[in-house]
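Re: that chain you flagged

S.,

Sorry for the slow reply, it's been a week of failed gels. I finally had a moment to sit down with the sequence you sent. For the record, here it is as I used it:
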Amino acid sequence: MQEFAQMVYQKLGFRLSSRQIEAFRRYEQLLLEWNQRLNLTAIRSAEMIRIKHFLDSLTCFLVMSESAPQRIVDVGSGAGFPGLPLKIACPTLELTLIEAIGKKAAFCQTVVQELGLNKVSVLSQRVETVAHLPQHREQYDWAVARAVANLPTLAEYLLPLVRVGGAAIAMKGESAPAEVHQAEHAIALLGGQVRKIVPVHLPQVAEDRYLVIIDKIAATPPTYPRRVGIPEKRPLI
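Prediction finished late last night. Pasting the structure tokens below so you have them in one place:
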């Protein structure tokens, strides 16, 4: 784990405390244990968990403002990425994880309890439903997602949750530039504007990775997101 902490410092410029390093170690252990029973992630080695899950998640700090973000929502969180690593590294943030698959949501809740993380909510619901609830709609400083959907669909999931003046981060692979072009209409319709596309390089990972940053510049029309399943079946393109 010390090598992981060193990678974080070299890549992101901040040091993890011994308590945070221990939290990542326990998270890794839980992920490996649960993965023997459930298919939480295709990544099975501890080394790649640290790089492709933990470090990759923390790259969101490359674009978040210098002041600690207050409220973050992680959409389609899966086994907790990127939300839980962000919370471990920045304990003051308030985090909501949205994960519709019950077993994955149960794993996230277990990690939260085992690590004693406060101000974390795990919602086993569809984002199309959550985004219309007053306590969540346009309430977040940042909405983040990794490997959830193509960008036209993902924008409809994320932007309704972000307050005007906040932003969304879509963590994407090599298709990011093409997806941004494809999603221009959807992003504008939903009250967003692409700020920039930031390339991310991870050690021992050959594939290109990008953070697509979308500013929320206007309120999302109340009809969005559309009902469950429609954003994926009929993207706003």
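What I noticed first: Residues 140 and 162 are 5 Å apart (CA to CA).

Talk soon,
D.
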